[in-house]
Specification:
This protein has a single domain, classed as TIM Barrel (Alpha-Beta Barrel), CATH 3.20.20.150. The protein is 42% helix and 16% strand. It is of the alpha/beta class and 290 residues long. The strands form two sheets. An eight-stranded parallel beta barrel has the order 1-2-3-4-5-6-7-10, surrounded by four helices. Strands 8-9 form a two-stranded antiparallel ribbon. GO terms for molecular function: isomerase activity.
């Protein structure tokens, strides 16, 4: 019996922030995840007064913030020439999350190379070390989304950091769709790092290089628009409604229970013409396990 609160990625509703928050409450969510990278949610655009007003508004809806999304796209933290600015912005998003009552910021960091001695691996490690130390100082987590690499390889990377300030946002569909990794085993492998989850389903149509999907130096930079387009009509993978893909949710939810995960199950829907209907169906799907 799941006891986890259910969240909605507000941006998945495509209604704008305020209407998306109200609709999330109407749909029965306990909390919401919000992109905080650009526009009105960019930390640079939110005054102290605006932050206080937003926190009070969310509380008035009896919602919590499960996490902010601080995904800056591009090549993640692979390019040392832009990392200083990206790290600085990521810190400000962490500050905003804490100020709004959450201690999680999710992101993609780029595909972790297999060779731990490669310059890119070391550049990513250095960036994540700085962000992990900063997040820990706030009692917060910078949570890497699963998908670009296997759970075992991601764990190996995280084990090299001095804190758990960089942890994991577990997305089972990304693993199924891109690396073909088993998300159930992934839960056990990453059990010490999981601080937030996305609930999504999908299938893999063919084997692909994760660097082509998630961006890597020498490859096209990652964008959520490209990922959504590929998930809708590409030849590599498909995002599907919960229960229609290859995520075994019965075993997956059981694994989360067994490791003692009590955090959010946040619904993310990156495709489809009827996101409100799809998200309502996803909530009903999760409720069957409660």
């Amino acid at each position: 019996m799941l006891i986890n609160p259910i969240g909605i990625m507000v941006d998945s509703l495509r209604l704008g922030l305020r209407d998306g928050l109200k609709k999330s409450k109407e749909l029965g969510a306990d909390g919401v995840q919000i992109y905080a990278v650009s526009g009105e949610m960019d930390p640079a655009n939110l005054s102290a007064g605006a932050r206080k007003e937003l926190r009070e508004y969310i509380a008035s809806l009896d919602l919590q913030i499960s996490a902010l999304c601080g995904d800056l796209g591009g090549h993640g933290f692979q390019d040392e020439t832009v990392n200083a600015a990206k790290i600085e912005k990521s810190k400000r998003i962490l500050d905003l999350a804490v100020e709004l009552g959450s201690n999680v910021v999710t992101t993609h960091i780029g595909v972790v190379p297999e060779d731990r001695n490669s310059p890119i691996y070391q550049t990513m490690l250095q960036a994540c070390e700085e962000l992990g130390v900063y997040a820990s100082s706030l009692g917060a987590y910078f949570a890497v989304e699963t998908g670009p690499e296997t759970s075992a390889h991601l764990k190996s990377f995280l084990d090299n950091l001095s804190t758990k300030g960089v942890s994991v946002n577990f997305d089972p569909a990304n693993m199924v769709m891109v690396t073909g990794d088993d998300p159930v085993q992934g839960v056990y492998t990453l059990k010490d790092y999981i601080v937030h989850t996305h609930v999504k389903d999908g299938i893999r149509l063919r084997q692909a290089d994760p660097r082509e999907v998630y961006g890597s130096l020498g490859y096209k930079p990652m964008s959520h628009e490209n990922i959504a387009e590929a998930a809708t009509s590409g030849d590599t993978y498909r995002e599907l409604a919960l229960g229609e893909g290859h995520v075994d949710f019965g075993r997956y939810f059981q694994a989360l229970l067994e490791i003692g995960y009590k955090g959010y199950l946040t619904i993310e829907r990156e495709v489809g013409a009827q996101p409100e209907k799809d998200i309502a169906s996803a909530i009903a799907f999760i409720q069957k396990y409660k």
